[in-house]
């Protein structure tokens, strides 16, 4: 047998043996890592919006915003390195349709998070179903009950609610208007909630309640209701209505000559409202908004984020669709955009990988604070743990010289109220 | 309280004439074709939309008094030829399903063209008159007067013209009318167009009062059906009477209870009337 006695270096046999062991080691350690990285499944987000029906104008813009957020996130590397894919469905402003589509998104399309519609009724009905199917739902509706008596461990809300809106407008009304008030509202969850919340804040500030009535949604003739208001004894008419009904009420009140001394405080910024449509009635109405429609009214530090957001969804500085010129829901439609970014923040903070990690995801969201930025374009916010309600600044505007003029910003910290529930005591 | 009652009654009377115009189109179509056209409300919506475009693009709401009924008559022809005529003589459920489908189609077309946001038309006559403690818009009074005039003209048309005679004859006995040389199929088409035109005119008159939106027909169709059922299908005079009674009754009840409850009161009255006279106030077929 030949040996290499006296010679340094390795033999061919040793070289082959070493190489083989090295290759085996790499394949045991490195290849699974490579496979793992390549096999990262995308995160599936379900977008459930009212693309048709009465809330059509909210839903179409909300869908745009949510999809734009998904695209923006993908462009910057995804969520925890995972791509975002989405499926969008129409809830048709109908609870039964919304529930059916929710099931489809979760069970058939495999969506792991739901960015929900602004229809409060759908959100309230959907929450127990989402919990049953172990899916976190982000609600856009502003009815108090969503984070009140109907709050759910699997539901979060990234926008102020009716209570915040009415707190803000009541505080501003107490400063600028008389104290005698009459309430007219739409006879459903949101309308009654709006009126109740205004009274809760305004009464301790000296408010003198004169009376109230509720009308069916989409009432055409408000004269029978307006006839019952003792105009000489009322300074403020609290209107718990959205766009179409608010337009009719304001116009008909003006035509009856009721707005010479009386002011209307509206429980919402009517999305899609055309100021020209209001005519002379416009100068008597104060609105509260979850944000502002016009870029001119956006606080300076938020302008760059807002500009980028509007570009992403095809909206101009006056809140109109760039292509059609139609007025959009600028004061609302940022919410689905931010909901997608809430998902990103919570996934990355909690290390969420699948539905099995939902308890961790929920725990991460509860109490989370976020700063103004490309994802949170309307400013700093925090998500209260007890009721999954976000708190942010609320805006009050009035129409002056044919356009919306900002009359006040009530800071989010001044809108805090005791929670109605404590979801931290509920196990996910 | 007296002033409140009187102002509610007066408003009910005014609104009643506008409702009558819309309801007459519905009762004409049923009386003649024996079909329940649940799409009548969406035709009213189209009339309001036409009115909006007359203001936006042609600078005058007045044009819509001509444009809306003409446009809706044309729409009526298309609807009749493409769908309604195939349901004649069949089960009422067939026409309900067809007309329900038409609602979806037309509403989506309105959303795509007009948009989903409610819009308002400037009041063509912004004047008001003193009315008890407040004011009352003059336009509502004129709209009611125009409705009354149109209904009167319709009655004259039915009574004094050859076409009117054909319509009445076909209504009484279509087979005999056919045998007498009356082109009954054309009469059916003509009545459907006339009913559609009246709905459109009602929409144009109501547009400056309410807001124009793609789903504005949902409420009015319910009220129109209540009126037509109470009056008796096919009776124009009955429709006018029922419309005024219902509107004024709701107005009177609203003085004492919540206006929502006032509608319940009106429904109860309707049930009582039908209990006493199941064929309606004026019965079927009476003009």
How would you describe the overall organization of this protein?
Chain A is built from 12 helices and 15 strands. In chain A, α2 (about 55-75) runs parallel beside α11 and α3 runs parallel beside α4 (about 120-130). Chain A folds into 2 domains: about 45-160 and about 295-390, Rossmann fold (3-Layer(aba) Sandwich), CATH 3.40.50; about 165-290, Response regulator (Rossmann fold), CATH 3.40.50.2300. With about 425 residues, chain A is α/β, with parallel strands linked by helices. Chain A is about 35% helix and about 20% strand. Chain A has a 7-stranded mixed beta sheet, with helices on both faces. The longest helix of chain A has 27 residues, at about 10-40. Chain B has about 290 residues and is mainly alpha-helical. Chain B is built from 11 helices and 2 strands. Chain B has a two-stranded antiparallel ribbon with strand order 1-2. The model of chain B has no long low-confidence stretch (mean pLDDT about 90). The interface of A and B includes residues 221, 243 and 247 of A.
Give me the CATH architecture of the largest domain in chain A, please.
3-Layer(aba) Sandwich
CATH fold-type name of chain B: ABC transporter involved in vitamin B12 uptake, BtuC
| Poorly predicted sequence stretches spanning 5 or more consecutive residues of chain A | 1-7, 32-37
Going by CATH, the architecture of chain B would be: Orthogonal Bundle
Biggest interface, and residues per chain? A-B, 42 and 41 residues
Poorly predicted runs of 5 or more residues of chain B: none
Main attributes of the structure:
heterodimer; A: 428 residues; alpha/beta; Rossmann fold; seven-stranded mixed sheet; five-stranded parallel sheet; 12 helices; 15 strands; B: 287 residues; mainly alpha; ABC transporter involved in vitamin B12 uptake, BtuC; two-stranded antiparallel ribbon; 2 strands; 72% helix
